[in-house]
Automatic annotation (TrEMBL):
The chain crosses the membrane at residues 35-52. Keywords: Cell shape, Cell wall biogenesis/degradation, Glycosyltransferase, Hydrolase, Membrane, Peptidoglycan synthesis, Transferase, Transmembrane, Transmembrane helix. The active site is at H143 (proton donor/acceptor), C159 (nucleophile). CDD domains: YkuD_like (cd16913). GO terms for biological process: cell wall organization; peptidoglycan-protein cross-linking; regulation of cell shape. Pathway: Cell wall biogenesis; peptidoglycan biosynthesis. This is L,D-transpeptidase catalytic domain. The keyword Cell wall biogenesis/degradation applies. GO terms for molecular function: glycosyltransferase activity; peptidoglycan L,D-transpeptidase activity. SUPFAM superfamilies: L,D-transpeptidase catalytic domain-like.
Length: 435
């Protein structure tokens, strides 16, 4: 009879008082009693409050419950507001997957044990529902608990348990009609307040056979520029463990070039720091070439290994100085990599000449210097001898070997290349002039 009265309620709203009186006298069918009351509240809520808007003013709130991670995520639109730990149903009584919505909310709910008909446990410390109930479908809901040590476990009869302070906070932030999505995602990628990207692979808590592969992780990381910087061996280890631990797979940092921040950020992946090469070359007014076959990037006579992600080429920080010269320091308190290089001009034209320090003294790449000045030199790699042709004579130029290339101290440039050198240490420039 109660079912018929509930149906007639939607046909004739004037019967509301009669139905309410009947329901309150009914001591047996507690489920339909709660359902009817929730429908009454829902009707008034939809009349008085814009659809989907919570009391706390969240715009387009929604809830995602992920069973393998045992978490609730509260969203406002597409923005994650907060994540809460929860307990979920045990394998024998699993929490159901699917899309639901909030249909009933109750403060200080009574509990009716499913295996003890007619028994009721009032609100209080003995009530396993805690002090808040958020109904989403049938007898399933999100609620508090008088056993907080169970949070994070796979232990309930199918409902979703929260710490009491968490469920009271959530209760106040969501309203009737708020979408609730229950998922079974074993892979989770997050970004924390430290700009670190975290990866977690969770166990198959219900034994559904959801196998996670390295390629599955790659697919979810496809939108990130550092996907190609991660090795398969590293990801395979995370998949093999599948223990739910959040592993830092990448972090971002700011890049400052000669005192100015660039828009692009650097990436730290598997303890290696990378810088996007193109914007760096642009600021330094240097021309670079990417060789897809050898996976190397070249600037002048210098070549270093690189990694390409989309249209961006990344190079390890330790190799940047080889490519462009300069010095790199790390400012941990500002999460900033400070790169400073000396700009070189030859007869007022900025040129690309690698620069290093030899025993505290600046030294320029002889090959780059000769090319910029149009001078003819012959470099004997085996004997480490550089010959400069001047007025028909071959002059041996003293050089210092750094890596695979010869460098000349700036104090020797005038003697061997007949050029005046002006080093402005404060402005970080070197000016070379010659007839």
């Amino acid at each position: 009879m109660l079912q018929q009265m509930l149906i007639s309620f939607f046909v004739a709203p004037s019967e509301l008082i009669k139905i309410l009186s009947y329901v309150l006298r009914d001591k047996k069918n507690q489920y339909l009693k709660r359902l009817f009351i929730s429908l009454v509240f829902l009707m008034f809520y939809l009349c008085l409050v814009p659809a989907g808007q919570a009391k706390a003013g969240l715009v387009s709130p929604s809830i995602t419950v992920n069973l393998p991670s045992r978490t609730i995520e509260l969203f406002a639109g597409n923005n994650l507001v907060k994540e809460y730990p929860v307990a979920i149903g045990k394998p024998a009584t699993p929490t159901p997957l699917g899309n639901y919505s909030i249909v009933y909310k109750e403060i200080n709910p009574d509990w009716y044990p499913p295996d003890q008909k007619g028994k009721m446990v009032p609100s209080g410390p003995e009530n396993p529902l805690g002090y808040r109930w958020i109904g989403i479908w049938n007898n399933y809901g999100i609620h508090g608990t008088n056993a907080p040590w169970t949070i994070g476990a796979v232990i309930s009869n199918g409902c979703i348990r929260m710490y009491e302070e968490d469920v009271e906070e959530l209760f106040d932030k969501v309203g009737y009609g708020t979408p609730v999505r229950i998922t079974y995602d074993r892979i989770k990628i997050r970004t924390n307040s430290k700009e670190q990207i975290l990866l977690a692979v969770y166990p198959d808590v219900y034994g559904y056979g959801n196998v996670v592969s390295v390629q599955d992780i790659r697919n979810q990381l496809a939108m990130y520029p550092w996907n190609s910087l991660l090795t398969d061996d590293f990801l395979r280890k995370v998949v093999t463990q599948a223990d739910g631990r959040q592993v830092v797979i990448a972090s971002q940092f700011k890049v400052m070039i000669n005192g100015s921040l660039i828009n692009e950020q650097g990436l730290s992946v598997q303890d290696v720091q990378y810088i996007p090469v193109q914007p760096l070359a642009g600021v330094l007014n240097q021309k670079i070439n990417w060789d897809e076959k050898t996976k190397t990037v070249q600037c002048g006579s210098n070549r270093i290994p690189g990694n390409r992600s989309g249209n961006t080429v990344y190079a390890a920080v330790e190799n940047i100085a080889v490519l462009f010269g300069g010095e790199i320091t790390w400012q941990a308190d500002q999460n900033t990599l400070d790169y400073r290089t000396t700009v070189i001009f030859v007869n007022d034209n900025q040129v690309n000449i690698a620069i290093k320090k030899v025993q505290g003294m600046l030294a320029l790449s002889v090959l780059d210097l000769a090319a910029a000045m149009g001078r003819r030199v012959v470099w004997n790699q085996e004997e480490c001898v550089l010959l400069l042709t001047d007025a028909g004579q071959n002059i041996i130029v003293p050089v210092a070997m750094i890596g695979q290339g010869p460098y000349i101290l700036i104090t020797n440039i005038n003697q061997y290349f007949n050029a005046y050198v002006y080093w402005n240490e404060q402005a970080n420039t070197i000016e070379l002039t010659y007839p």
